[in-house]
């Protein structure tokens, strides 16, 4: 059986029936049939080799900042990259290169580069999570994103091989990286190289303050996965949800923020089903009223269909 084999072969001690809600900022969901959190790349390679043979369900988890897990048992393997957190910094003159593994904190990228006098990552000020998830979703703010920094991405491919992708080999746009288009196969982002340019500390601090002010307008305190939906071309999902009357809507323990209509909150006792149904309701309302079908930004893991 694939589960028994993985528990014997992997060095990272896979866990059965791992509770998943504590691993996401939203705090909802059930448990993983098998949870794997490697500290070494070799375990990721081996896991994908076994997936290529057995084709069990496989979900990849970064920092858990934009994820909603389904309730109950999530069959297969949930792979967390959080413990892959190595970092290599190289600076010379007016340029710097940072090579980090997928589990490296995005906030640490901002801190390290800005403290060393390099610009480029300020847009990520206040964005939680890990580099792997940020790269996969091209996280960003103010018209800037991870794709602007990237020189190279290293992935584990579906056959268990390692592949390095140069910047010209993949595309990044708003909340999109072309390397995530892997259906019906799968790949895992394990590291990347980013480039930065020298700037004055005054310019860097000005940039940081701009993004701090923008984030101060977002809801604080309640458990959330950030924006529930991506912005449609030329518009704002928050604006559309607001004019369609979605602010304050609730289902069970899930609620749409009264402060920002694109922030979906866990009021303390939400389930995965509550989150899913409220997102479904809001999307239906916007589509019926103005004909725009909003695309989820929150990743829904383990939900049927």
Please explain how this structure is put together.
This protein is an alpha+beta fold. It contains seven helices and 20 strands. The strands form six sheets. Strands 6, 7, 8, 11, 12 and 15 form a six-stranded antiparallel β-sheet that branches. Strands 1-2-5-3 form a four-stranded mixed β-sheet, with no helix packed on it. A hairpin with a 2-residue loop joins β6 and β7. The longest helix has 19 residues. It is globular and about 50 Å long.
Feature tags:
305 residues, alpha+beta, six-stranded antiparallel sheet, 29% strand, globular
Task: Compile the SSE list and pairings.
Layout: H1 2-9, E1 15-19, E2 31-36, H2 41-54, E3 58-61, E4 67-69, E5 73-80, E6 87-92, E7 95-101, H3 106-115, E8 118-119, H4 131-136, E9 140-141, E10 144-145, E11 150-156, E12 162-166, E13 172-173, E14 176-177, E15 188-198, H5 201-215, E16 223-227, H6 237-243, E17 250-251, E18 254-256, E19 263-266, H7 272-290, E20 299-301
Parallel strand pairs: 2-5, 3-5, 4-20
Antiparallel strand pairs: 1-2, 6-7, 7-15, 8-15, 9-10, 11-12, 11-15, 13-14, 16-19, 17-18, 18-19
Low-confidence stretches: none
Judged by helices, strands and strand pairing, the structural class is: alpha+beta
Q: In angstroms, what separates the terminal alpha carbons?
A: 26 Å
- Shape descriptor: globular
Strand content: 25-35%
Q: Using DSSP, what is the number of strands?
A: 20
Largest sheet: 6 strands, antiparallel
Helical residues, percent: 25-40%
Average pLDDT over all residues? 95
Number of helices: 7
Give the topology string: H per helix, E per strand: HEEHEEEEEHEHEEEEEEEHEHEEEHE
Radius of gyration using CA atoms only: 20 Å
